[in-house]
Amino acid sequence: MAELETFRAETRAWLAENCPPEMRQPVRGEEDACWGGRNPVFHSDAQRLWLEAMAGRGWTVPDWPKAYGGGGLSPAETKVLRQEIAAIGARNPLYSFGISMLGPALLKYGSEEQKKRFLPEIARGEIRWCQGYSEPNAGSDLASLQTRAEDRGDHWLVNGQKVWTSYADKADWIFCLVRTNPSAPKHKGISFLLFDMASPGVSTRPILLISGNSPFCETFFDDVEVPKDQLVGELDKGWDVAKYLLGHEREMISGMGLGGGADSLGAALGKRLADDPVLRAEVARFDVDSIAFRAMSERFIDELKAGQAHPAQPSMMKYAGTELNKRRHELVMAAGGSDSLEWESEASRGGKTAREWLRTKANSIEGGTSEVQLNIIAKRILDLPGA
Ligand SMILES: Cc1cc2nc3c(=O)[nH]c(=O)nc-3n(C[C@H](O)[C@H](O)[C@H](O)COP(=O)(O)OP(=O)(O)OC[C@H]3O[C@@H](n4cnc5c(N)ncnc54)[C@H](O)[C@@H]3O)c2cc1C
């Protein structure tokens, strides 16, 4: 205990010295976040310094082993670090699918060589990754995917198409599900490949949304040659890697339910609730559910770090967190009345209120829809019979 308190004091002092004041506030949207990569875009010197300081200590991934670029902290130390970061309102120094998705899968399924090659780069934010799972005819039914990789002796030859690949046009590398055995049952002939998006034969086409943004792409593979040693886990057993990674993706997305650290929606909406007792009651109910979710989330993270979480628990957390976040934004919109719907006005923060509300709808689709999470909960946690 005394050791942990010493660690807390040292961490607090280090953060006070190394976290620039501009980084002690939430990011103002995905475009304000730091994503790293081969050609990183820093929106300020403070953003660069904050990433360098945290990566230098291995604290972008505090609980990964030091040998792979992590901080080597115990679960208890990691929790203290997170608490101290939250106490000063510091933002995440690096947004990365490498950290939240691929890294954990490599730690479990990667060869020693793959861990040494990829994990330190992920920890330092030097490579930006994208996720090549969904295809035009394989979303919820992901195991129906058709992108194939043929064994050509000294390399894999990849052909096919992915869709909804978030930031594929900005990513350096992709972690990709491919069919390596077309005659095996659909879950059993899939493998997990890593490759460079700059490889000849890879192309992306951004999908333009009605909002004017293009957060994801169609991604095409046309005779892409992938070195043999970039297959993770066993040949034809990529489904195990894919599912494990999805658990981590769902854990990350469930964080939406924490509402970016805002303690009470009632307090945030304040005066706007004064005249409406029904809305006030709904917001109070939301605040209670939000406190319960926060407690559940802390317990879940503790269980996960102790290796005691049920493998389907991330589905429960994702379902609860994303549905809660949708409720939060419905209430914010309701409190703002018709002003919230305006795209340009000051009352709608230049359309931000409505855009954020619309974005929450996608949270219960990405990483597997709410319906799919409910199916998993019914089958694997409640042990209910299948339909
Ligand atoms: C913002 C965003 C980012 C994304 N980023 C990525 C990415 O980077 N990489 C990637 O690979 N994919 C990505 N996706 C794709 C995402 O994983 C899929 O959209 C998701 O898995 C659902 O698949 P689908 O869109 O094909 O819908 P479908 O599978 O066609 O589902 C349509 C509807 O049917 C319901 N449904 C389907 N099957 C069942 C069932 N068995 N029981 C009950 N209901 C069912 C679904 O819940 C849904 O409401 C992203 C999606 C979004 C919205």
Features:
11 helices; Butyryl-CoA Dehydrogenase, subunit A, domain 3; Butyryl-CoA Dehydrogenase, subunit A, domain 2; 3 domains; four-stranded antiparallel beta sheet; 387 residues; four-stranded mixed beta sheet; alpha+beta
Report on the architecture of this protein.
- The protein has three domains: 101 residues, Butyryl-Coa Dehydrogenase, subunit A, domain 1, CATH 1.10.540; 108 residues, Butyryl-CoA Dehydrogenase, subunit A, domain 2; 142 residues, Butyryl-CoA Dehydrogenase, subunit A, domain 3 (Up-down Bundle), CATH 1.20.140.
- 43% of the residues lie in helices and 14% in strands.
- The chain is an alpha+beta fold and 387 residues long.
- A hairpin with an 8-residue loop joins strand 6 and strand 7.
- The mean pLDDT is 93.
- Helix 4 runs antiparallel to helix 6.
- The radius of gyration is 22 Å and the shape is globular.
- Flavin-adenine dinucleotide binds next to strand 1, strand 3 and helix 11.
Small molecules (ligands, ions, cofactors) in the structure: flavin-adenine dinucleotide
Strand order of the largest sheet: 1-4-5-8
Q: How many E strands? A: 8
Count of runs of 4 or more consecutive helical residues: 11
Q: Give the CATH architecture of the largest domain.
A: Up-down Bundle
What's the SSE pattern? HHHHHEEEEEEEEHHHHHH
CATH superfamily of the largest domain: Butyryl-CoA Dehydrogenase, subunit A, domain 3
Query: How would you classify the helix and strand content by structural class?
Result: alpha+beta
Instruction: Kindly report the average pLDDT value.
Output: 93
Q: What is the CATH top level name of the largest domain? A: Mainly Alpha
* Radius of gyration computed on alpha carbons: 22 Å
Helix content: 40-55%
In whole angstroms, how far apart are the ends?
50 Å
List low-pLDDT spans.
none
